[in-house]
What does this fold into?
Amino acid sequence: MINRVTQICLAAAMVLGQFMVQAHAADFMHVGGRTSQPVGHYEFCQRLPAECMPQKHARSPLKLTGSLWALINRINDEVNDEILPISDEELWGVPELWSFPGNFGDCEDFVLEKRRRLIAAGVPASQLLITVVRQSNGEGHAVLTISTDRGDLVLDNINPEILPWASTGYEFLKRQSSAHAGIWTEILDGRRTVLVQNVASTHSD
It folds into this structure.
């Protein structure tokens, strides 16, 4: 039987083959100006200011190598498998509390743990960006974006498959600045107009 490591390596070869075509502008998120920091992240930064500091060195997007692909898949799988999803209301009795999780956590906690482990593995923090999206049902959600030379990839606790940002089906709203972990920037998701037009067309039928 093929073990998980072998599966990841085989998947890496297949996916990297697809990614090795010329990257296009649509593969990368377009960000606008500074926007509001999520309240939960602001409070997290007050408790752990070292997690929300300026980045000392601006970095280019990461080169998406086979080893990097295997690493992000392994950590994404580990965190998704180890943590049981549960709301902050159920766990802490409050509507929102961002924290590094133990055995339980909500979407932001999954993201924080994946980011922490990837940084510990040597991935630059400036390319690991907490990102806020809207699901098709209208609910907010958090994912981790990794900026690579093949485009922006998304690590998610709902969908275990790592996908290019535009293939997730989410509406992207804002994310951390690559220059400062405590500052957030708006995402100019050009697909919003199409989404709104499609909804309007559906309701007019």
